[in-house]
Amino acid sequence: MELSNKLRWNQFLILATALMSPALTVLCNDILSLKVAGDPVLTPHSVCLRLVGLSKRQMRMCMRSPDVTASALQGIQVAIHECQHQLRDQRWNCSSLESFGKLPHHSTILSRGFRESAFSLALLAAGVAHSVASACSMGKLRGCSCEAKRRQDDDKIRLKLTQLQLQTLQKGGDTWMWGGCSHDLRFGDRFSRDWLDSRGSPRDIYARMRIHNNRVGRQIVTDNMTRKCKCHGTSGSCQFKTCWYVSPEFRVVGSLLKEKFLSAIFVNSQNKNNGVFNPRTENSARRSAGGFSGGRRRSMSRELVYFEKSPDFCERDASIDSPGTQGRICNKTSYSTDSCSSLCCGRGHNILRQTRSERCNCRFHWCCYVLCEECRLTEWVNVCK
């Protein structure tokens, strides 16, 4: 017994050391810098006063609901990781969105009208809605709790089992009822909208583009909610099931938005304050992928839109948040965007034997840290000059 306790204590010390050391396997929330595992005490001081550049509205929301804000910030962090995964083969790969102590919405590229801006905005809005809805379903937020609903469901389940014990067996089938604790996407959607769409007013095309793409990102989460069920009955039977809605895996959200990124619509940039986007008529080469099919205009309500042609992102340029592609690993046998000819922008590449450490198999934990494994790789790589 004493040996077992000692082993458990040693395991705890190893985990605690890992959690407190950013050089090991834990990445703390890069925005809040909270390194405490488990459920930290989320107060206005520990959350709101750590953030730089909040609008007055955002500060009021944070002071009123620091726990919801912390969940939203974790959603932003999840979205940044997903952005880096989805655009890993592109010249601009979302790396500039990740900065310590700052919200990514202060990144210059998110104040531009590029295709990459549209994708990032949509993914960040989806991340906030997804994270807040998930935290709500876990009973982690004071503003929306499922504890009372769970107790009511327990009573309903007991009553339902009594009623269906013979009826279900006679029918030889099963039945189901809504129960459990669905991800409260309405709550998450509203907080995402209030938090992100409140930055400015829709009086110019950028503001309209931002609000539009935010809405598209949240809609992807809503449209892909799935039903999850749990069986009830004696001896492992499934006399009936309680079912509830859950948000899609965020990798699914990211993949669907990546498809919309590739087919995003280039819109008219004339500053007509009517809230209506018009596709660029001169984009005849893009019509099949950018908004027209068979002579009919594709509805833009669920599509990403942008109004500025993207730069090549080949060189470092702080004015557009471009880190450049020097030092990027490329694939010399590829003919896609990860090829050396594309990523290296004609500068050529070197072949190097490289040993590097990468974060891998990351898992996001409430609240608010990221636990990753450290993957060490030694290989010959092609690196852009």
Global mean pLDDT: 76
How many H/I helices?
A: 11
- Specify the structural class: alpha+beta
Q: Count every beta strand, where a strand is a DSSP E run of 2 or more residues.
A: 13
Cα distance spanning the termini: 59 Å
DSSP helix fraction: 25-40%
Count of the domains: 2
Indicate the radius of gyration in whole angstroms. Answer: 24 Å
Give the overall form: globular
Order of helices and strands: HEHHHHHEHHEEHEHEEEEEEHEE
GO molecular function: cytokine activity; frizzled binding
Keywords: Developmental protein, Disulfide bond, Extracellular matrix, Glycoprotein, Lipoprotein, Secreted, Signal, Wnt signaling pathway
InterPro entries: Wnt, Wnt10, Wnt_C, Wnt_CS
Region (Disordered): 277-296
Give keywords.
385 residues; alpha+beta; Endo-n-acetylneuraminidase fold; 2 domains; three-stranded mixed β-sheet
What layout of secondary structure does this protein have?
Blueprint: H1 2-20, E1 26-28, H2 44-47, H3 56-64, H4 66-86, H5 115-137, H6 147-171, E2 175-178, H7 185-196, H8 205-223, E3 226-232, E4 240-246, H9 250-262, E5 265-266, H10 287-290, E6 292-293, E7 296-297, E8 305-306, E9 316-317, E10 322-323, E11 329-330, H11 340-343, E12 349-365, E13 369-384
Parallel strand pairs: 2-4, 5-8
Antiparallel strand pairs: 1-13, 3-4, 6-7, 9-10, 11-13, 12-13
Helix pairs in contact: 3-4, 4-5, 4-9, 5-7, 5-8, 5-9, 7-8
Care to give the gist of this entry?
The protein is of the alpha+beta class and 385 residues long.
